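Note to self: keep these together.
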Amino acid sequence: MSEKTDGNGRYTCPRCGRNVLATRLACIYCGEPAPRDTTPCLPQSLVAEAPLAVVSRRALIIVDLSNVSAEQAARALDLGLADASLRTRRGGYQLQRIVSLDESESCVARLRHNGVAAWSLSADRIEAGRHPVIVRGGDVAAGRFVLAENSAPIQVASENLLIALWGRIRRERHEPPGPERLRYRPSPSSLEEEHCIHLHRRLEVRPLEIDPGAFEFAEQETALESSLLRIRSGLESLMNHRTIDDSFRFETPVMTPMQARHVGIFAIVESLKDRFPEPRDRAPERLHNLNQFRFYSAWRGALAHVLESD
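Structure:
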């Protein structure tokens, strides 16, 4: 058994600290890839029947609970009626589980047999979608964007947009614990909420990522309107008033250490904060659930591609 797994075949995710089955390719909560040395805890029968390269392949099982009764969901998902009722009340597309590619077809077939729409998505494709293309600025309504990695603007036509996802990014500040003798551990304090937008294009796997708080507008501001409202208005125009999906709000936040995500002039402001850092033993830890949103967006975008091709 691996040193990073317990006797029940689970390991602690190095990013979010949750317990995860060692048979999973990635943490189901935050999407962090599983440590390589957890692989030996796979069922011995499965390891013996296939090479390690085959065993390590995974697929995400997605279900649609929009028009499913609690009784149907309980039977199909092996849940208690109370839990199934909560899942169906939320409805929509939900990540059910992560399985090996060999299991995925039979898993989808069983769910569909029980009246639940289901799809299998390759984990390799999801991994590619977890790394968005960062947008620095531009004109949202016109579909012209300047990327952080390339100064040349790109044009995104409305008909090439597959889905737009809007996520509320929760942020927390964790103060370091007090002296051991005081047995004092401060509770986390909430910071101002941020937002993140992902635009999935028909011919691309990686989504465009827009941070409203760091977006550099191409047009001059003509009214006292927040950047958030300006981007939403422009996005609605670009999407021809199609629905902007904000169902990420139903996900239970999984907090991970915050990393700088600003670009352009906003990155300069962020860098100034590091000129006089606090001592490591007193520096507060800042957390957010941006990584969780990127993982959620990755499988939602992959599913949108599958649904369009069906």
